[in-house]
Design a protein that fits this description.
Two copies of one chain form a homodimer.
Chain A (H helix, E strand, L loop, with lengths): L3 E3 L4 E4 L7 H6 L4 E6 L9 H11 L3 E5 L8 H14 L3 E6 L1 H13 L7 H4 L11 E5 L11 E6 L4 E6 L7 E4 L9 H19 L8 H23 L4 H14 L14 H12 L4 H19 L1 H12 L6 H18 L16 H7 L1 H6 L7 H10 L2
Parallel strand pairs in A: 2-9, 3-4, 3-5, 5-6, 6-9
Antiparallel strand pairs in A: 7-8
């Protein structure tokens, strides 16, 4: 295990009917709130009205910032920052998926500086301060409700970039599994793929099994996600399945899974961000489409780790290391098929002719994340596995 | 999953040579510090001098409260509270095992009230405030470095009582696995038994497997502890094994393992506390001595959960539920033997004639923890399994 610092003070309020607590939990951080939300999920389950009532009952002055789009864009964030400045807003409330929460984070940090918010994403400026954030995630998988990361797309340069800072950790996250009953089957699958991708990025990002604790931790969350996803798709109102997916999504990316692993890369997300910079695919769908090809790539380049995963997840014992690794990749791919997720780029109507553009697009993120082992040529090779 | 609130802001600084950071991490909480430590561990590894130097370098005025005994006593805590009051101490620094950290917590809470600190433990008064605490644990297993619990023994009434309050969560915990190289084999085993007991208390404290996430989480930490304990005993300077034991001990009792399980009892700890109220045994040794008998008890009363554990831990597939449960109990007991831990009360020279006194002693804790399903008669039955 490498040295690490783990600090995650986000207060998690988990359970049915917990959304009405948002007002009281937010009021401690300010009197004027910006409510950030998207286009769909807040309109389900009467959530919009519940949140407005709760904030109003707690005496908050509410300013609206709705219609946040998937793969959220810089333009909308800049508008949110303007609203915060014009009204001296003190706290940001995010109700929605990962895009909504990430937008809230960008607004919370961007509102307190004189320069443009994109300077943070270009690595030109560091985040020194941010408004407090409270949130209610409405889909499992992004992990943004209890972590320090945010991802934003610059529509002009076609760059989707992710950065992190502990000041972006939400103060409070209210997780009600029942709010995710209305997530359609496809997006339930995408969320599960997102959770598993987060864990596998760390799992495969090392050659040795020197951290058995982290291996067991990640395997447990992957198994939980696999077991619960099909149940939630078959029976959208299955509370226990939704609860397991939601809490697993949080625990997969709240800092524990990466603690002790040293410098961890995020190559799959880097490539998916490049795809999102060019194509309007759902983030989780992009990850699912890349996963089987990436697993094949890992079977070749890191068979020991893939085999260890298969032994942990599926108890595969037959065959040598490579045989077990191959079987592991096949079983994970079969599961993606089963939940109805895309399993190759063709499923997203992305053809081999697009590979150079995707590889090129990922260069800036690779530079920012210091992933020197992933120059465009390597990414092209990897993408070729994903055709 | 039941509704829950999870909030654990303790900052974990994990890694080799991290102890000298204690001064800088503590200085933010006050200028006058009480240094709480025990009788042995702080004298190893030059730790005493490192801590003193670091605190002094950070400009802290240091007051000493050393010699804390295992199963820490009320008398020493009262003396610590006096020291805090006499010198207007603002922050408490604990360097040692669970007893030392628990004493620091009791001092931190007790110093800010006019009534006697034992009123908290009797349930007569609630904790409304506490001095900030920073700590360096020197043994894996108690979990106290990053949780809200504390256990104290009243030497007069022979009662050892545990209570919890989120105000007791340390602000910072510095975990250096190398500091545990000097933990003797027996205490390494006791610490591992403590970690596993914490997890199993929650694991068996329900009849259904409605929380697969928590099952996988706990199984992963139990496996980690089992795999690493023998390595640490055989090779005391095995950093990776010590690191796994230390971080597993923290993650076993930092709130995640119990989140979502509803009201969780702690019956094994309750009984062990009763033993400690009467006999001067090490806490982890007492737990180890009780574990095999408790497992037998669980095989009878909750075979489905024990079988699920065995399937998760040992991949046992042969036989019906009871057969798998029995095999699970046998394998866990065999592991306790292997690491040199006691496996029955006789190993602690506690005979059957002591059972009524232990059962009687546990009554107050049972009342405080509202464990109505454990009247003295049931505890006697259970203890008889542990002979």
């Amino acid at each position: 295990m490498y040295n690490f610092v783990f600090e995650n003070p986000t207060k998690i309020i988990f359970g049915r009917d917990s959304a009405p607590r948002i007002g009281a939990e937010t009021a401690g951080f300010g009197k004027k709130a910006l409510l950030v939300y998207g286009r769909r999920s807040i309109r389900q389950n009467n959530l919009y009205q519940i949140v407005l009532d709760s904030l109003a009952d707690a005496g908050l002055e509410i300013h609206l910032h709705g219609g946040v789009q998937p793969n959220p864009g810089l333009t909308q964030v800049r508008a949110g920052i303007e609203t915060v400045r014009n009204h001296n807003i003190e706290v940001v409330v995010a109700v929605g998926g990962g895009s909504v929460i990430d937008s809230a984070k960008a607004i919370a940090a961007g509102a307190l500086v004189n320069h443009d918010v994109w300077q943070f994403f270009k690595g030109k400026k560091g985040i020194k301060n941010a408004l407090p954030i409270t949130c209610i995630p409405t889909i499992a998988g992004s992990g943004s409700e209890a972590n320090s990361g945010m991802v934003l797309t610059n529509e002009t340069t076609r760059q989707k970039i992710g950065i992190g800072n502990k000041l972006l950790l939400p103060k409070v996250a209210i997780l009600d599994p029942a709010l995710t009953f209305s997530v359609p089957p496809a997006y339930t699958a995408y969320g599960a793929a997102d959770t598993i991708a987060h864990l596998l990025e760390f799992y495969f990002n090392r050659e040795e099994s020197f951290a058995p604790l982290q291996d067991h931790y990640s395997e447990g969350l992957i198994l939980t996600t696999m077991e619960s996803c099909m149940a939630a798709i078959t029976e959208p109102g299955n509370y226990q399945a939704r609860a397991a997916l939601l809490w697993a999504g949080t625990l997969a990316l709240n800092g524990i899974s990466a603690s002790g692993l040293g410098r961890v890369g995020f190559p799959l997300h880097m490539i998916e961000h490049a795809i999102n910079g060019i194509f309007a695919t759902a983030h989780g769908a992009g990850l699912a489409a890349l996963l089987p090809g990436w697993l094949k790539w890992c079977v070749i380049n890191n068979p020991g780790r893939v085999a260890r995963l298969g032994q942990g997840l599926f108890k595969i014992k037959e065959g040598d290391e490579t045989a077990i690794a191959r079987q592991t990749a096949l079983q994970l791919t079969a599961w993606l098929h089963e939940i109805g997720a895309p399993t190759r780029l063709a499923d997203l109507t992305i053809g081999p002719e697009q590979i150079p553009a995707i590889a090129e697009n990922s260069a800036m993120q690779a530079k920012l994340w210091k992933l020197r082992e992933y120059p465009p040529k390597v990414i092209e090779d990897l993408l070729f596995q994903c055709i």
